[in-house]
Amino acid sequence: MVSFTNVIFVFVLLIVHTEGKGHLKNKDDIRDTVQKLFDTIRNMQATRDTVAIPPFKYAEFRGVYESDVKLYFHGSPVESAMRYGFGIWDNNMFATAWVTSCLLEAYHYGNAPKPSEEQIMMSIEFMYKNYHNKNLNYTNSIMAFWPQLYDEGYQAYVSTPVNLLAMFNSTYLIDWDTVYQELDKAGLTEIATTIQHLLRTREGYAHVFHIPPDFDDTSVNLGLGSLLKDLITEFPQSSVLWQSKNSNLSSVFNGLKHYAYRPNGGDRRVNTIDTRTYFYMRRFLENATMENKSVALVTTWVQDLVDIKTEYFKGIITPSNVNNVDITVSANALFGITNSVLTGLVTTEVLDDPEIEQIYVNTSTMIAFQIHTNFSGRPDLALTYYPSVMEFYWFVSRTYAQLQRRHRATGLPHEVMYTVMSTLEEALRTTMTEDVIKQAVYNGTEEAYYDDFLGDGDKDENNKSIRFGEDRLYTTGMAINALITTWTYYDDNTGHLHWHSDTPDGVKKTVSAAVTFLNQHILSGEYEPWNAFFSGSFKGHGTSWSEYPANRYEFFNGTKITDIHHYYGGETIRGMEGVVNETWYQEELKARHSPIDFHGFNRDPEYFPFWCSEAYTYVISMLALSTYDNIA
């Protein structure tokens, strides 16, 4: 007979083993979930082109993954219902590039199934077909968010969100007076009022669609190419196809140099920035100025204040006419530069260019500064187009992880990379980690989740707050990815991830609890698999360029505008030039009653457009679960 003591001893060993590795049953559950997610994502890719018949069917391009434009209605039960009722399929490049990148990373660093070459190649063909900058007379890898189609009126290639434009055009064919009458009869006056407002602003939205190419899609494409280069033996056809479609990568680095924000210089082409950027960025800029250091940072748009004066009339227009710095774009540029060098997609000599080196170092230093200062107190402005903080954290951690991986294996190929690695490490392992752990919401003792803002701003018929947690799955997956990517390293010899020896217990506990929640709920149907991976820069009070001071206000022809409180719009430039005296700036803030603090996106009743990709939620969840499963 086995003694009672021996039974207890074996039981204790099992507990200890489970604490370090995770529940064995849970590991099996995770693998089952990962397979189901993989199958779900594969079925969400369009396999053929379809024609739009709005509002019944929208155009889909072969190779694209699902992504919808929604409006963030929130508040009353009617507004909540409208949020669910509005959605337009969007053929943007960004979502598909990210889904494809995550499929590769989940296979390489996790235990996810291998995507087929056909699946990857369809996405590459989709991105190449219409998203390279066609207005340049040479081969390039400058990418656009929307397809660029030729416009006879402008005599240029113009960003063309085909489904959004088709929907807008269809609104002119409807007898809205009859619709309003029927809505009023049904007691749905609130919906009628909202429709009237949307119709009044549709021309403004159509104007915003004319965006230039950008350094975010450009950088994400570069990052994807570097992942394929790293996995060329596993995906030879896809890697060769990508490289054949991107044969002039110098165009990316030349573009980064030409359009970098340089506030300390006298070149008025690039020393002026969006007023919202200056508001959150000014402390960083002031510190650099006091240290007598020049600054060069990655911008969002591939357009400067010389370009705008001609391209404006060709339908290629930066929103508000002045460039900005979005730190999520900065994070993706950092990864693109880093991994393209580490994988040999471009030569190490790229970093010998003093301008690229400065942009590389300054951008990483700025990112670390924003992490340490809680985005200078204004995440709504710093994360201009990408409101998810957890997504930003993960984007930054990806660069750090690749630097760490090479550093552990053979050392870094360029000295400046050690500087960037050290800068990111300090920010990620302290402030970022503390923030992610602090934000975890425990559902009992075994599960933890994260919310952002979608679905958490509604009230019921009794005016009681409701939290639907519509981005809970997405945000939880991103939080897991941020922590795992920061605190593990990949061993090329074993194919496993390992916790760094100094990983805090709190990190492991948080990751385990969040993985348990995500594995339990990602496919349960209890929560919407929504996200706000992209949004308009205007998201209500406090997010308009007109609410912040400007020291440069002029027409395109250079004539200064003296009435600083009148907004002419159109052919004007209004922004912050150089680095100004803080006393003057504070006086201007007070004079125009500029909003200083951010109170969350649910506090303001304004609705705004956001882009949601359920495929993106599923793939980042698959990445989180599969990498956790691959920790040895």
Secondary-structure blueprint:
Blueprint (H helix, E strand, L loop, with lengths): L3 H18 L2 H19 L25 E4 L5 H9 L2 E2 L3 H17 L7 H15 L16 E4 L4 E4 L2 H9 L5 H10 L3 H12 L1 H7 L6 H16 L5 H10 L4 H10 L12 E2 L1 H16 L17 H4 L15 H16 L11 H19 L6 H4 L6 H21 L5 H25 L1 E3 L3 E3 L8 E2 L5 E2 L5 H16 E4 L4 E4 L5 H17 L12 E2 L16 E4 L16 E6 L4 H10 L17 E4 L1 H16 L3
Antiparallel strand pairs: 1-2, 1-15, 3-4, 5-14, 6-7, 8-9, 10-11, 12-15, 13-14
Keywords: Signal
Offer a few descriptive terms.
632 residues, alpha+beta, 4-stranded antiparallel β-sheet, 3-stranded antiparallel β-sheet, 23 helices, globular, signal
Mean pLDDT: 94
**Annotation, overall tally of beta strands:** 15
Largest sheet: 4 strands, antiparallel
- Helix and strand composition category: alpha+beta
Write down the Rg: 25 Å
Order of strands across the main sheet: 2-1-15-12
Span of the ends, CA to CA: 36 Å
Description:
The protein is an alpha+beta fold and 632 residues long. The chain has 23 helices and 15 strands. Strands 2-1-15-12 form a four-stranded antiparallel β-sheet, sandwiched between helices. The chain has a three-stranded antiparallel β-sheet with strand order 5-14-13. The model is unreliable at 1-25 (pLDDT under 50).
